[in-house]
Design brief:
The longest helix has 26 residues. The protein is built from nine helices and nine strands. Helices cover 35% and strands 20% of the residues. It has a single domain, classed as Vaccinia Virus protein VP39 (Rossmann fold). The strands form two sheets. Strands 5-4-3-6-7-9-8 form a seven-stranded mixed sheet, with helices on both faces. The N terminus is likely disordered. It is an alpha/beta fold and 320 residues long. GO terms for molecular function: methyltransferase activity.
Length: 320
């Protein structure tokens, strides 16, 4: 059953471009005033949670300790699902420069630095949420839609994941081009995103079908987002000029009793339902409590029909 659930998309390539100049020494530029929203605000109905105050963003998740704990658990889920932190076929060595874009609490980049202490590790986010335990990772404020504060052709590996809830449909090509810009020729970009739909090989229930239409996916579409970002990652990379692109999908069971992946996926999705309940309630004229109850029904149905959720990891290389 697990083998049938797992999907793999065919590799996609874009023809090589003309040779690029050698990469410049790394330079960090201060972001222009107004680029970064470091303040936090409260969303009505969630007075105990703190949320980003970046008004022009569609990002709806909190920025507090509770959310950072969820992101850390989600990081472990993705590691279990894809077998580690780095999917790109790159040999990290002394002096390799690695950047984590939208780093949040820095779970990914801190693990990569632990596994490869010889690298130069950088992290960037539009909010001051990264609290490194030491000086091994350099954090820099940056907004990918307004230009990251790094020179062209700087990094050997650039990583970005879970921007599905942060970028509008029109912003994905912009983001992919920015990732490609700061990657050195021959370097790699790695992205991870979900596909936005709950699935089952035994058929979905009415509650799951309604959730797929109006739940997180529907709310994101109403806010201008792209719930199908995961399956389209190879398209964004190709349009940005990357080559040797590979986009793989793996399925995470929703049932907490189906191994460590199922346990992590179940806990993560239930936490997301509770966290996003106020936002979903505003989208569909419901109360947060009604959304949570709706979500519980969906989770129960996923258990009964062996529901699963697909995640995509894509890698692409910048031409020499």
């Amino acid at each position: 059953m697990a083998g049938r659930r797992q999907q793999e998309l065919q590799s996609s390539e874009r023809s090589s471009k003309a040779p690029r100049p050698n990469k410049s020494p790394i330079m960090v530029h201060p972001a222009p005033d107004g680029n970064i929203a470091t303040g936090l605000s409260l969303v009505p109905g969630t007075e105990s949670r703190q949320y980003h105050s970046k008004i022009e963003s569609i990002y709806a998740l909190p920025a507090d300790g509770q959310e950072f704990d969820r992101l850390e658990a989600q990081h472990r889920l993705i590691g279990l699902l894809f077998g580690g932190t780095v999917s790109a076929p790159i040999e990290l060595k002394t002096g390799s420069k690695v950047l984590d874009v939208g780093c949040g609490p820095g779970s990914w980049i801190k693990q990569v630095k632990t596994e490869h202490p010889e690298i130069e590790a950088y992290a960037t986010d539009f909010a001051d949420t990264f609290k490194p335990s030491d000086a091994q990772v350099k954090f820099v404020h940056g907004d990918i839609l307004k230009g990251l504060p790094f020179e062209d052709d700087t990094f050997d590996l650039v990583h970005m994941r879970f921007f599905t809830g942060a970028l509008k449909v029109s912003e994905w090509p912009v983001a992919a081009k920015e990732l490609a810009r700061i990657t050195r020729p021959g370097g790699w970009v790695q992205m991870v995103e979900p596909d936005g739909t709950l699935r089952s090989e035994r058929g979905i229930t009415d509650a799951i079908a309604d959730w797929n239409k109006r739940g997180m996916r529907g709310s994101l579409e109403k806010r201008g987002g792209e719930p199908n970002a995961g399956p389209k990652l190879h398209e964004f990379m190709a349009a940005a000029g990357l080559t040797n692109i590979d986009n793989k999908a793996k399925s995470a069971p929703m049932n907490s009793k189906v191994g460590p992946v199922g346990a992590h996926m179940n806990a993560d999705y239930q936490a997301l339902i509770t966290t996003l309940a106020p936002v979903l309630a505003q989208s569909w004229d419901m109360t947060p409590a009604e959304v949570v109850e709706w979500g519980r029904k969906v989770m129960a149905d996923c258990n009964s029909v062996e529901g699963f959720h697909n995640f995509h990891t894509a890698v692409g290389q910048k031409p020499q």
